Description:
alpha/beta, globular, Rossmann fold, 13 strands, six-stranded parallel beta sheet, seven-stranded parallel beta sheet, 2 domains, 16% strand, 379 residues
Amino acid sequence: MRIAIIHEWLVTYSGSERVLEQILAVYPDADLFCVIDFLDNQNREFILGKKTTTTFIQHLPKARSKYRSYLPLMPLAIEQLDLSNYDLVISSNHAVAKGVLTGPDQLHISCIYSPIRYAWDLQHQYLKYAGLDGGVKGWLAKWILHKIRLWDSRTANGVDSFIAISHFIARRIKKVYRRESTVIYPPVDIHAFTQVDIKESFYLAASRLVPYKRIDLIVEAFSKMPDRRLVVIGDGPEFDKVREKAKKNIELLGYQEFEVLKDYMQRARAFVYAAEEDFGIIPLEAQACGTPVVAYGKGALLETIRDLASHEEPTGVFFSSQTVESIRDAVEYFERNIEGITPEACRKNAERFAPEIFRESFARLVEHEYEQFHKAMNT
Length: 379
């Protein structure tokens, strides 16, 4: 069986690349295709050092740093990849990968991180953040996104089986594509983290400092709780805004290497997270350290954190809205009930998302779908 794996862009190692890494661990002989590939030689270990087949966007000006600006061309680019010699096509998709062209004798399985956020339900937020919610440029951006939505809907018909990374995303797939999907949670490298039972007094927040992560809200909330210490790890365009809101009880460390982040995560009293996530890896990494999570109770975090208010083996506390008051209330509730959450429960919950569980679930689904596909072909 010849297998092709399609990933959108290879420029760094983040959430979707962790999934790709584990898919390649299951199918190490597969060929790898992508829109662009700018990984350095020393960073190609997670793709097994493979050479990739890329598209014409690879050769366009500033493609390495401004590749997202070429989104209007990506549907055309992805359709130029010739996959006609493959029996199984697996697309790793949060934008255009599922749009590859396949024939009636080829099984296409698409792992969806989310339908294109900035073209569907989050269009208005993204355009506002980009300063494109008005004027001629705004009109042009909306027209382009309208065309992308039409293309995105049409290309869903070329997928034989959808995988969703959470039930939250499965609902989005149903809403946008009118298709059912199988939920397989992404892998979390829990083996890189050690459970630590003795915690210190500080809270930890860590992520890239971009608007939707709402680190500013966390900092503002702790600024109004001077007896609670907060450590913030991460850098990004919101850093100055966050720094302006920080009081003496808040320490901003900026970007830190993994080992430093892990050390703080293992020692923290709790990890605080205010984003609405499609899955959310870092709250699970905190739980792998035996560290409870105080999180926004919406999106896929409802699937990955066990609430103190409703679960026999809780791993965290939810706040109901992205407001300073809601975060403060959740922290105080956590403090009053901290004995109800154990490091053992946190670690046990994180173990549900181990890489080996992902690999087993993914391989089992592909085997089943391939068998059913060929059975249908022969009837």
